[in-house]
Each structure stands twice: as structure tokens, then as C-alpha cells.
Amino acid sequence: MTDLLRLSRLAFVDSYEEGGTLIVRAKSVRHHEPYGCCLLFSFSKMGTKAVRYCDHAIQGQPVWLEIKRQRFRCNSCGKVGYEVLPDIDTERRITKRFREHLQKDAIKYPFTMAAEINGVHETLVRRVFDEHAKRVLGKYKPMLPRVLGMDEIYLHKKPRFVIGDIDQGYESTGAYFEHEALHPSHWMPLPPTPTE
């Protein structure tokens, strides 16, 4: 039988269609108990609950995984928790691989287009992108010159702006209306200023 899920910690049970959406029933290969709320780590099983999580579309058809999650009760404090699903982002109710796919699509396309392509709401794409951007750009610190000079000029019959590091004597040119990235290869030394 073909592994429809391709998730190592979940096993395929069966699938059916519901209103144009493919519902794939799955179960955990091994139940992972919730992280302990108390020092004893003593849990009792307390039934299951079917929960749906969004996954990649298959041939343009939206896919939801329906997983019967095991509930556990802590024997010392009575707190109820669900089993841990390593392949699932339980906060957003999507698979982790789908979350990574949304992160890439949010960079490639506008948020509305990425949402439409993947069959999800735009706010989900925005939240996933914001979380990804905070993680990736959290330690990024732009290096800016102490004195930045800016001017506009026509070069090759196109309006351009010129920015330069006045202290170090470097300048860079870029187009006004084109989204050209200012890469360090664009930087060139300024001609020496004439002394009087």
C-alpha cells in the first residue's frame, strides 16, 4: 500500500471525500505522552478526540488529516492534556511541512495569492510569515554609515537615486521605480573631491 501521508510518526488508516475536500484518517504510530505538569510524570489514558489538521493539497484538492488524539490525565494534579504530535503544529492546526511550505510561498508570492494557491485564509499566511521572519531576521542588524548622503540624477535617460557613505567615500546608484536590490557589488568609490 502506498504511504499517502509520508509522515513517519503517523500511520494512514483510510480516506474519504467530504464536500470537495479529501479527509485522510491517521493515527499515531506511538503515543507520546504530554510534557509533565508535575514532577511525577504519571498519566492515565482518558479516551480520544478526533481533531483535523490542514495539510498539502493533493492535485489541487484540499487535504485535512483527521487524527484521533489520545487524551491523558495527570494522576497527581488531575490536569488533562493531549498526546504530543511531533509532525503537527497544534497551535495553528496544520502540519509542520505545510507550515514550511506556506513560509516559502509567503516569500515568493503576495499573501493573498499564497493563501489562494494553498486554500487557506490570508491571516494564516501572514501569521506564519511573521513568525518565520522574526526567527530569521531576529539577529539581523543593518550596517548603516554614520553620514548618509542622498541625491537624484538622470543616468542613461532613467531617473536614478544616488546614495553614498560620506565618511568612507562610497556611492551606489539605483532606479527610482524599479525594485533593484542595492547589493555591495553596486558600490563604487567616489571620485576624489578637488581641494582648493
From TrEMBL:
Domain Transposase IS204/IS1001/IS1096/IS1165 helix-turn-helix: 85-133
Protein name: Transposase IS204/IS1001/IS1096/IS1165 helix-turn-helix domain-containing protein
